[in-house]
Amino acid sequence: MTETTLHAPLAPISPWTRVVMVDADAIGDVAADVVAMIAPDGVLGVATGSSPLALYAALIRRRAEGLATEGLRLFALDEYVGLDASDPRSYAAYVRSVIARPLGIPAENVRVPRGSTGADGAAYERAIAAEGGVDVQIVGIGRNGHIGFNEPGSDAETRTRVVELDESTRRANAEHFDGDLSRVPTHAMTQGVATILSARRIVLVASGAAKAAALRAALTGPITPDNPASFLQRHPDVTVVADPDALREHR
Ligand code: GLP
Q1: Distance from the alpha carbon of residue 190 to the mean position of ligand 1, in angstroms
Q2: pTM, full prediction
Q3: Residue 17 and residue 192: Cα distance in Å, rounded?
Q4: 50 CA → ligand 1 middle, Å
Q5: Which of 12, 99, 177, 217 has the most CB atoms in a 10 Å sphere around its CB?
Q6: Contact 69/36 with Cβ under 8 angstroms?
Q7: CA 228 to the chain's CA centroid
Q8: Per residue in 182-213, is it b (16+ CB within 10 Å) or e — as a string?
Q9: Ligand 1 pocket, 49 CB below 6 A?
């Protein structure tokens, strides 16, 4: 049985944000409870990175136990500019191999931002709208407070667009490029802050001390483009699932 500890948030966190502190090995299951509510055919916004891996693993276990996931429609948060979808380091490849395939979701139900122009971003926004919007959006958080690839400086009105990546973000992601910073793409296409906030429900997953400062600023600091995750305080339905290390600055 999973033991969850409800964390008493510090002011001025929004009263509608739930912060659930659980041991790192329970994050996936607790977050999966929220996602499972939109099965069998909801629209799921998916994040990449290491934070949501346990959540996807939990969904895959639940599928084996009978949860119908094949009809879910997926929209990814972001993608590197310049990496083909066939490149194993692309987020398209991650979404295919880590999420869609093991959950039995057909390729036509999977969208990942692609391209490098304003028109490509606008087309992605239209694709989300055509599916009726996102029911549950999963997000991780970068060490600098980014959500998707909305780096510090991204404001509340931003929509899907091409962004330049911070060097700190490129360094953090260099491990996927043989540790070679020069191989990490300099730009990405990402859903904007406004796009993310349009989801009906948001689940933020975070673990580890490296996220503690960004998470504290996001949840209890001022709402500011300096920490794009802080805009989540304006959303009416956010569940934060994080381990004690990520929440250590709250205690
Ligand atoms: C990446 C992704 C984000 C992700 C974040 C944290 O750069 N663009 O969507 O949430 O950084 O990644 P991780 O969970 O691996 O720490």
Answers
A1: 12
A2: 0.94
A3: 20
A4: 7
A5: 99
A6: no
A7: 13
A8: eebbeebbbbbbbbbbbbbbbbbbbbbeebbb
A9: yes
41-76 pLDDT tens trace: 999 999 999 999 999 999 999 999 999 999 999 999
Which class for 130: exposed (0-12), middle (13-18), buried (19 or more C-beta within 10 A)? exposed
Ligand 1 lined by 48 (C-beta under 6 Å): yes
Query: Measuring CA to CA, which residue among 43, 111, 31 is closest to residue 77?
Result: 111
Query: What is the position in ligand 1's atom list of the atom closest to the CA of 78?
Result: 8
Domain covering 32-207+216-241: architecture:
3-Layer(aba) Sandwich (3.40)
**What span, in angstroms and rounded, lies between the C-alpha atoms of 19 and 40?**
26
Residue positions annotated with a catalytic role: 78, 144, 146, 151
In short, whether 192's Cβ falls inside 6 Å of ligand 1 is no
What are 178-216's pLDDT values in tens digits? 999 999 999 999 999 999 999 999 999 999 999 999 999
Question: CA 102, CA 115: separation in Å to the nearest integer?
Answer: 26
Q: What value, to the nearest 5°, has the Cα angle with vertex 139 and ends 61 and 14?
A: 120
